[in-house]
Amino acid sequence: MTTDVHKTIDAVWRIESPRLIAGLMRMVRDIDLAEELAQDALVVALERWPDSGIPDNPGAWLMATAKHRAIDRLRRHKLLDRKHEQLAYELESEREDIDAKQEAALDDAVGDDLLRLIFIACHPVLSTEAQVALTLRLLGGLTTPEIARAFLLPEPTVAQRIVRAKRSLGAAQVPFELPPRDQLAERLASVLGVIYLIFNEGYSASSGEDWIRPGLCEDALRLGRVLAELMPHEPEVHGLVALMELQASRLGARTGADGAPVLLPDQDRGKWDRLLIGRGLEALERAERLGRVRGPYALQAAIAACHARAPSAEATDWPRIVALYDTLSELVPSPVVELNRAVALAMAHGPQAGLDLADQLREVAALANYHLLPAVRGDLLAKLERHAEALIEFERAAALAGNEPERRLLLERAAQSAARAG
Question: Distance between alpha carbon 55 and the CA centroid of its chain, in Å?
């Protein structure tokens, strides 16, 4: 029973911690202190909830507990100068059971603590890489290993990046306030990058026992929709929202009853969410209407739209998808984009065409430990009936995969290749 409660607490923490840290940062104006107070509240929950049960509103309970800790800390360290007296007064005067969403809605023009603080963390004093890593860690609910996998970087590199980003914000005395509206656009690329990576981690989890993490997808979608209201004339904002709506429409078909991954060609398209597809297509149309040239998010949304419109994998307009990947590759060159282009080439022109490109990517250092490269090569080799080679690739992909359901799927593919090779 205690183990079940701890699992529930862990799930609650992953959902609520970004909002909790965001709200605390707004109040205490200190990143490290906000994180520490949030962790203190988690420790109290771990001590009390196994006996008392999970509260009806665990997020509000954690926030109230963290606020009490903040007040106790101020008193204990006798920091009650004028500034801290005012802070303590504000903390004590707020109702403990206030709904976090109501509180955020009254906050400022953005109307959302998470989004507001993403803009703050995306300050020009930080490099784009540091901005994204910091906001993912604090507000996206991702762990350092998850961020490292998203960036295809070593974990110590990402950990250092986060620490340095905090120090840089502190040294520059960056105020924890929303920047002027005319400066929001300057930080938009980083903000979009943060939301995009959060959604990707939810759509295809890099580690753990679940292949998808719908909560992260929902958080990213919520942030994207709020951002679209805040900046309605930015085509790439609508492009990203379109991409997320269209991808999220498949979530119900991406796993079987046992939680095992179901790949795109095998999905029951009757389970795709038509409402989300409609919203995604509308957002894509808005992005294309606003932008004279498609940006990277609108291009990816156009690719997702090809899948959404097709009644089956075979009926998909693969030549158009190849053309869209060609444009995307020219606009934002990336080995991951090239790997996706290899898959599209294989579907449009046969597995050998895709394998030729995938083989070239084996020389790219950034993909050296990327499990999807051998996974794609294994699939293409199997289609070419080169099963002994496919076996090696699937086993290598399984060894590199951090997500357990995905690893099992790759091992099943390896076993199938072994049987056919034998």
Answer: 27
Strand, helix or coil for residue 122: coil
Rounded to whole angstroms, the Cα distance separating 219 from 228 reads 14
Element at 64 (helix H, strand E): helix 58-76
pLDDT 10s digits, 376-403: 999 999 999 999 999 999 999 999 999 9
* Residue 168 vs residues 165, 226, 388: alpha-carbon distances, Å: 5, 28, 52
**Contacts by residues 271-278 (CB-CB < 8 Å, ≥ 24 positions apart):** 272/308, 273/248, 273/249, 274/249, 276/245, 276/246, 276/248, 276/249, 277/245, 277/246, 277/249, 277/308
Of residues 145, 146, 147, the one with CA closest to residue 131? 147
- Which residue is it, tokens 């509000």? 60
Burial of 189 (0-12, 13-18, 19+ CB in 10 A): middle
Please tell me the distance from the alpha carbon of residue 249 to that of residue 77, in angstroms, as a whole number. Answer: 51
What confidence tens digit (pLDDT) does each residue in 324-345 have? 999 999 999 999 999 999 999 9
